[in-house]
Each structure stands twice: as C-alpha cells, then as structure tokens.
Amino acid sequence: MLKKVSKATLKSLMKKKAHIRVGTAADAMVELNVLLFLHSLAEESRTKAFEEKSATIKAHHVKAVSKKLLKRARG
C-alpha cells in the first residue's frame, strides 16, 4: 500500500512555483486526481490482462497502459 503524503508536504511542493496561486482545497483536489488516475490505471491494466487471457495483472500490463494514459492525461 502506498503511503499518503502529508498536507504540509503537498502544499510546500505546490508552493515552489511562485507564480501559481494555491487555493485552500488544492491539496484535496490533487489527492483526488491521483486516486482517479490510479483507478483508471487499474481498470485499463485489468482490461489489458483480460485481452491477453491472463488471470493476473502483471508489470508489463501496467507499463503498456501507463504510457497510453499519461499521453491522454497530458494532452
């Protein structure tokens, strides 16, 4: 299980960019976006594993899907 990043650490990372204003609920929004990304990554990896007739999700399934999801998230 992944460790949860503390609010103070998250806010300090976001405030390093001086020209960006950070709202009061920005840390919660970042956490929700990460959870949403991980959920979609898990679903797509499961689909990829099912297409290859594999009962378990393996590392190469996640790597193949992550490239596609990152391109879609950035663009």
From TrEMBL:
CDD domains in alphabetical order: HFD_CENP-W
UniProt cross-references to InterPro entries, sorted A to Z: CENP-W, CENP-W/WIP1, Histone-fold
Key words of the record: Centromere, Chromosome, Kinetochore, Nucleus
GO biological process, one term: mitotic cell cycle
Keyword Nucleotide-binding included in the entry's annotation: no
Pfam families recorded: CENP-W
GO CC list: kinetochore; nucleoplasm
rRNA-binding recorded as keyword: no
A Gene Ontology molecular function term of the record: DNA binding
Subcellular location: Chromosome, Centromere, Kinetochore; Nucleus
The organism's place on the tree of life at top rank: Eukaryota
Family according to the record: Belongs to the CENP-W/WIP1 family.
UniProt protein name: Centromere protein W
Organism: Coregonus suidteri
